[in-house]
Specification:
The chain is of the alpha/beta class. It is 29% helix and 26% strand. The longest helix is centred in the N-terminal third of the chain and has 26 residues. It is globular.
Length: 455
């Protein structure tokens, strides 16, 4: 009975660890298998180290701002190795915390590659065999690099966190949030950055006003944006990279980072003859109970490609553990409505609810309130930092159905307002709320001039 479990989790990222711990807390016999690192992408090569680097990239602007307040900051310098190695120590500390959380919860940990061999059977490195009443796939995602001549000469997002040296000039290829964050980070650290995106405007899926504003601000900060541009091939020249562009011309840089999306990590997950129903993008299909097409096999997190956000994977893990093992089971499926999110580019983006485009499609007629201003902390000098705030209101019900911000502390401010959006706050509720002055957040409760827009 030593290898007989109620639940075997494959993948010790955020969602897998949360599901394992919560299931064990409900009394289940749980094992978890991890072949790479505890904490998954978010802790190791995602949101945690990325935000630490984003903090680091912000100091040059802070030094400039300090002069406007009477401080003299002379002779400052930046050492890449210090930032990189301090980050690595923090990640190693978090790895240990994740491992201890599992041990303290009574979860049996196996280090190696987990593979589903058949109904109720999982192997570790093809050797150790586990029997499981239920199996959970929580293997996450991995960076995707398209096939083209010279794609072996690029780096992926994981590589930024462990570079031996910081390059002088880079190309960041991609238009999603990862590419935009990396472009901002490298630019802030003093690297000359070219961001290339094949579409007309990056950050597809975000509100159009936010996308336009961020492009303007990133360009003003020094990032060289190349829209409607794709890479046809990459060659090496004297140790540097030559990007042959699809529209003609070339770009010479030291390094190329590809951030062109992520795909589910399903490598060697299924033994021969074991099949899962997947979507066109490779994501594992699940029903509202997170069960796959295989009886007794569940999946959550980035591998199912619903919302690729760590807090969503955590919520899915908690919900599934309760659904399978708790005495008091959740009422209904997990609710994905009004999930807030942030992008840690410069300027930061915070968003919750519908974009203007989505709201028009859903409600027909909306009222749109916008504000654009220079935050108070920049008014003593010449730094032209700007912030955008935007509310989208369903005209029929007066409910605020979308809130968007691009600017300093956007993520922190949006998280607070997300509670109000989730609770169904109306524009009248916002108007009755007294603001905290002087703050950027008060702009959301002082917007009065709206524009009615009809589909």
């Amino acid at each position: 009975m030593a290898n007989d479990f109620d639940l075997v989790v494959i993948g010790a990222g955020s969602g897998g660890v949360r599901a394992a711990r919560m299931a064990a807390g409900h009394g289940a016999r749980v094992a978890i298998i991890e072949e790479r690192f505890f904490g998954g992408t978010c802790v190791n090569v995602g949101c945690v180290p990325k935000k630490l680097f984003a903090y680091g990239a912000g100091f040059p602007d802070e030094f400039r701002l300090a002069a406007d307040y009477g401080y003299t900051v002379e002779g400052w310098s930046f050492d890449w190795a210090t930032l990189r190695d301090n980050k690595t120590r923090e990640i190693e500390r978090l790895n240990g915390i994740y491992r201890r959380l599992l041990d303290n919860a009574g979860v049996t940990v196996f280090e190696g590659h987990g593979r589903i061999e058949g109904a109720g059977r999982v192997s570790v490195d093809g050797d150790v065999q586990l029997d499981a009443e239920r199996i959970l796939i929580a293997t996450g995602g991995k960076p995707f690099v398209p096939d083209f001549p010279g794609n072996d000469k690029v780096r992926i997002s994981d590589d930024l966190f462990y570079l031996d040296r910081l390059p002088d000039t880079v190309a960041v290829v991609g238009g999603g949030y990862i590419a935009s964050e990396f472009a901002s980070i490298l630019n802030g650290l003093g690297v000359t950055v070219h961001q290339l995106y094949r579409g007309e405007l990056f950050l597809r899926g975000f509100d159009h006003d936010v996308r336009t504003f961020v492009a303007e601000q990133m360009g003003a900060s020094g990032v060289k944006l190349h829209f409607n541009t794709d890479v046809a091939a990459i060659e090496e020249r004297d140790g540097r990279r030559v990007l042959r562009l699809d529209g003609g011309g070339e770009l010479l840089v030291d390094e190329v980072f590809y951030a062109t999306g992520r795909v589910p990590r399903l490598d060697n997950l299924l033994a021969e003859g074991v099949c899962l129903d997947t979507a066109d993008n490779g994501a594992v299909r699940v029903d509202e109970g997170l069960q796959t097409s295989l009886d007794g096999v569940y999946a959550l997190g980035d591998v199912i490609d619903r919302l690729q956000l760590t807090p969503v994977a955590l919520a899915e893990g908690m919900w599934l553990a309760a659904h399978l093992f708790a005495k008091d089971k959740p009422q209904g499926p997990l609710d994905y409505r009004d999930v807030p999110t942030a992008v840690f580019c410069h300027p930061n983006i915070g968003t919750v609810g519908f974009t203007e485009e989505e709201a028009l499609e859903r409600f027909g007629t909306v009222r749109v309130y916008r504000g654009r201003f220079r935050p108070m902390r920049y008014t003593l000098g010449d730094i032209q930092e700007k912030t955008l705030v935007k509310l989208i209101v369903d005209d029929a019900s007066d409910r605020v159905v979308g809130l968007h911000m691009a600017g300093e502390e956007a993520s922190e401010i949006t998280q607070g307002f997300a509670v109000a959006i989730r609770m169904g706050a109306t524009k009248a509720d916002f108007d009755r709320t007294i603001g905290i002055h002087p703050t950027s957040a008060e702009e959301f409760v002082t917007l009065r001039e709206g524009e009615t827009v009809t589909r």
